Amino acid sequence: MSNVIKNPRNGCALHGALQTVQEINGAVPVVHSNAGCGVVNYLANQRFSGGASSYSGFSIPGTAAQERHVIFGGASRLREQIKNTIKVQKGDLYVILNSCESAMVGDDVDAMTREIVEQGEPVVDTLVAGFNGGPHYGYEQVLGDIFKSIYEVKKSGLKRESNLVNIFGIVPQKDPYWQGNLNELQRILTGLGIKSNVFFGTEGGVADFVNAKNASASIVFSQWGELPAKILKEKFDIPVIYRSSLPIGTDKVQDLAEAINKVISLDESLVKDFLEKEEHTEKSLFLRVRDEIFELGLSKNAVIIGDEEQVIRLGGFLKDRLGVVISSVVLIDSLKKDEAHETNNEEELRTISENIYKGIDQKEIDEIVSSSNAEVIFGSSLEKRIAEKLNLPLVEISYPIADKLILNKADAGVNGAISLLENYITVVKQYDERKKELASSILKEVKGGESWRELSQKKSFLRQSNLITELPTREYISAQR
Amino acid sequence: MAGKIGKHIAIYGKGGIGKSTTTSNISAALAEAGYRVIQIGCDPKSDSTNTLRGNNYLPTVLDSLREGNKIHLDDISVKGFGGVLCIESGGPVPGVGCAGRGINAAVNLLQELNLFEEFKPDYVLYDVLGDVVCGGFAVPIRDGITDRAYVVSSSDFMALYAANNLFKAINKYAPTGGAKLGGVIANSMKPGYHREIVDDFVAKTGTSIAGYVNRSLDVQQSELYGKTVIEAKPNSAQADIYRNLAKYIAENEDLVVPNPLGSAELRDWARSWGDRIYDIENGVVNGVAEAI
Fold this sequence. Notes:
The complex is a heterodimer.
Chain A: H1 13-22, E1 27-31, H2 37-48, H3 67-71, H4 75-88, E2 93-97, H5 100-105, H6 109-118, E3 123-126, H7 135-153, E4 164-168, H8 178-191, E5 195-197, H9 206-211, E6 217-220, H10 226-236, E7 240-242, H11 250-261, H12 268-288, H13 290-295, E8 301-306, H14 308-322, E9 325-331, H15 346-352, E10 355-358, H16 362-371, E11 376-379, H17 384-390, E12 394-396, H18 413-444, H19 452-463, H20 474-479
Parallel strand pairs in A: 1-2, 2-3, 4-5, 4-6, 6-7, 8-9, 8-11, 9-10, 11-12
Chain B: E1 7-13, H1 19-32, E2 37-42, H2 61-67, H3 73-76, E3 77-79, E4 85-88, H4 99-112, H5 115-119, E5 123-128, E6 148-153, H6 157-173, E7 180-189, H7 194-205, E8 209-214, H8 217-224, H9 229-232, H10 237-251, H11 263-282
Parallel strand pairs in B: 1-5, 1-6, 2-4, 2-5, 6-7, 7-8
Antiparallel strand pairs in B: 3-4
């Protein structure tokens, strides 16, 4: 019997593939679906994270298939749409995205793509349908499909670059801090003497995809990103470096440098100088808030709700650097039943928390939060209600984040460590401030002349202010007598 | 609901088993008896009503839908033998699109066009591709469009297998207002054990025989002339077989929800018949007669 899933936070595979292609500079997505698939994704992501890319929402070229395209097949409609798109939208690469209905009907999308490629246009396609999985799966599959065919339509010589790496595993828009994190990662790799293909956002683009075959290694920073790296290994023998998460803090950057050094030899003195400089920056800024770290009591009990990569990255940092006790974690990756990946991070997850849950049902997540002894929640805007109900501070780290604009802010790397600290302290300060306001509003109720019993009750309220969710009124207090 | 006007009957059966021939002859026999009849071919091959309309051209419902123009009943229907209104749902070219959705869209369109209110039929026969490969092909027995289905089957295992699959579909949809089974039309019957096999199958599945139709040269000849047996050879014994079948179907109100056999059960049942046929063909004597 199927169960109700409350507030599922993941979209479908088409959405994952679409938001991946949207963030590739120079790539034009063409969605072969009924009207609405692309717009739904746009409405969700525009509302929740970092705005919209150039081809998104109502500007996405699409076939807007109708019933007759289902009955008689929509391939010729797709052909027409690709041709029209090429006429009006200049792109370095056109990526055809499939949908549930076209997959069910069995439209020969491949044949349409081949036909246009034969006319000399740079077109690739993916056959992944919405129902094949979640957005993480869509990200991985569309990258896999692009790498399978891009070198047929974008021909160039093979020239291995000894200090070039490919970056995989960060799902655009699914990680609210994806853009900032990619930029921060590129900054760090540059500091270590390494050039990088980041593929997405302000520093990425179609050229990165063309250039990916020349890299000396692919670094996969989460369980999502194994497929494109594997394809590049099979095609061009590019070694793969698996990491369970993005680095956060200088110590984790050093770990990354050591892992890279096993595959690509790094300039030791350059690395040493860079790490020292980073450590200096990090330490200096941390020192500035040493008093707050203790005064605000940042080493709280916490629950983390996020993708596996976020949980490992942020959980490790909070635990090791700020003494946070992670009582439970909830992994919200859109995993299929019994889905297995090359890398298994269970052991590392267990070092972060004893209680590891997987799932996206908000009802279950709320129960997990309620039954933990958490004093702070690291999660998404969907945890706002339970945070308010339990009167706990909420640090928003995972998708969806509704009430903040995040354009180029990182929560990974060295700058990410600082901004996470800023974020955490800000939330706790605001929370403490709210508590103080609550206390003073109760004190204002004291008019003089109250009995000892009345005053004692107010004091008791103040002591328990953690449990007060609404301001007590005078009537309420007098009713307590 | 449009289904309330006239009796709506779906006729299923494995491809090539003689559904269209049987359905057309039933339509012709009913028309001959003075009833107003519509026959709707629900098969992408769109050749259900050929023998009723002398192989004349008839645009299919979906052909008209593809053009995207406003569709009138006159564009997609033609009167054939005895005034039978012939309609073909049609479908995409083989290997493209979704024929199941096509059937669905065609049936919906016919209802939108008020076909039944306009024509006021006594009987509507749906001749449906019988393998029920997806939900689309189950449309005529779902949603109260028809309230009874018949299945055409020979004694061949694959034809009975397809019939058993249809029984599964009826079994699924009947509790929620879908059609029930009127019976099995045993087609291509030849002398020997053929009737016995079909009889045994209906007994096993809790269904009944609507009629036996013998294999006959008359059917083949009439088809080659582009006519039904009722039209081409009205005085033949075969024509009477179809008339009796039509009468049975017109009057039968004994509808059942069949008990389809499970995969293993069906296989074992088929194997037991395989052994019996081998014995019959090779003159092996079993049972009491063995002692003689």
